[in-house]
Amino acid sequence: MQQAHGKLLITGSSGQIGTELTGTLVERYGADRVIATDISKPGRKDCNTAALDVTEADSVKNIVKKEGVTTIVHLAAILSAKGEKTPDFAFDVNVNGMRNVLSAAAAVSGVKLFFPSTIGIFGADTPRDNVPIETITRPTTMYGITKLFCEQLGEYYFRRYGLDVRGLRLPGIVSYKTPPGGGTTDYSIEMLRAAAGGENYTCFLKKETMLPMMYMPDALGAIVKLLEAPSSALVHRTNFNVMAFSFCPSDLENEIRKINPGFSVSYAPDERQEIADTWPRSLDSSAAAREWGFSAKYTLSEMVRDMLMNLAPLPEK
Ligand code: SER
Question: What is the pLDDT of residues 79-91, one digit of tens each?
């Protein structure tokens, strides 16, 4: 178990990443140090829990002060596809939520704050392959616009108030424990779930839509590494690119068919295709590797095997 001073507060802890990351942090820092929050009080029993609406500035401030919070893992956010359905709500949660968390953190000295940014901060003008951290960032979704703002607001709090803010741009995250909350990369999980359930799948992206992705265990490992990196080692702050591999829907289909030859996918792109068309195919993760030792272990085929094993027993050979 690692030493951590004070309490560690997680927002959005019932989401796709939150449910798993909370478990990882409880293992690392101890149950009594972790407070898992979400808009409704999380049902988990392995740590302290509370209901917390990040759009309510006073509630955020109060919990940080009252509990003696020294680390905040701010996951509460509205993802790309859902954000296009409810842009005002996405703005409120993503922008005002971030501002409230930053300002509560800055009001107490010595607080560290982590939040995930996204490949959604890039746009159609960004080069597509091996995208560097600094490049053209003109996102066109509410999700991308708000997360780019979060990156920059985070840097502002670091420069102006010395707040230890850290963030990385996650690619699509594939996992089996908790479904994602309305993203564009969700097709990958839906496809694997269909295959595991013995069903075929209709994909909402075109078969050649290549996007950067990562398996959940590598995402959890990356977040913990960045959270624990010595502050002095960080040249960048809120905008580290990270990815494990790139694939398109037909690559995933083919990988599944190696295990389950009867599986098939039909393609019926919807409005989410427009979002995916503005995102890069791959990212340059070298600054993350250099500054805090980022690495991803799982390959695409290892991920597919592990997902199918965990979602359903593999067919007899
Ligand atoms: N998984 C996210 C989404 O598709 C990308 O950060 O919205």
Answer: 999 999 999 999 9
